[in-house]
Task: inverse folding
């Protein structure tokens, strides 16, 4: 469980999050909706601990591991996809190359794993970022605009992965400004505006 209580964030004199109360339970999937600049990304950054609240508190029931895509993912563009993922996996040493290959196959990138990332299309880079977020099977998946640049086939795969992680008791938090095809996957849909939760 992750609980935010009366959380606000002020940056350079501007309120970017205002009095946020939010409860996210294990096995639940939450969708944050709202136009660009409404505070979705900042809220994701706060949930996973990249920034601290100015006021209020964030309570984590456990010491959760996070899989995160926020804004533009960083890769070694002159290196291959498999090099990038193996480098990331070497930090925590939780998975083997077999698991990396499993996720590359799931996301239709296995045949391109030895291609340099700079040759990838935008959609392929997005899927590589999703491999990065999912491959260590973290407790909490945080995805900022994960559906951008994906065709229908790969969108279906991402929705299936989200559903699979929900069934495993993981928490999934997604921010999206557009329409989503599988609204049935979301246990809660939260509308944001001007740094506030309005619905």
Result:
């Amino acid at each position: 469980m992750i609980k935010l209580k009366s959380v606000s964030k002020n940056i350079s004199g501007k309120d970017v999050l205002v009095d946020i109360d939010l409860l996210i339970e294990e096995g639940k999937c939450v969708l944050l909706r709202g136009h660009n600049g409404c505070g979705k990304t900042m809220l994701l950054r706060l949930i996973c601990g990249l920034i601290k609240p100015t006021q209020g508190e964030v309570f984590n029931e456990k010491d959760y591991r996070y899989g995160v895509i926020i804004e533009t993912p960083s890769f070694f563009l002159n290196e291959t996809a498999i090099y990038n993922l193996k480098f990331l996996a070497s930090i925590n040493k939780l998975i083997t190359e077999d698991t990396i290959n499993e996720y590359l196959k799931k996301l239709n990138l296995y045949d391109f794993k030895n291609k340099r990332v700079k040759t990838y299309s935008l959609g392929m880079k997005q899927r590589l970022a999703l491999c990065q977020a999912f491959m260590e099977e973290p407790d909490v998946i945080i995805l900022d605009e994960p559906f951008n640049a994906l065709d229908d086939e790969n969108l279906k795969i991402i929705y299936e992965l989200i559903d699979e992680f929900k069934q495993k008791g993981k928490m999934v938090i997604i921010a999206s400004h557009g329409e989503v095809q599988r609204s049935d996957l979301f246990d809660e849909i939260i509308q944001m505006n001007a740094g506030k939760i309005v619905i």
Summary: The mean pLDDT is 94. The chain has five helices and nine strands. The chain has two domains: 1-64+139-199, 75-131.
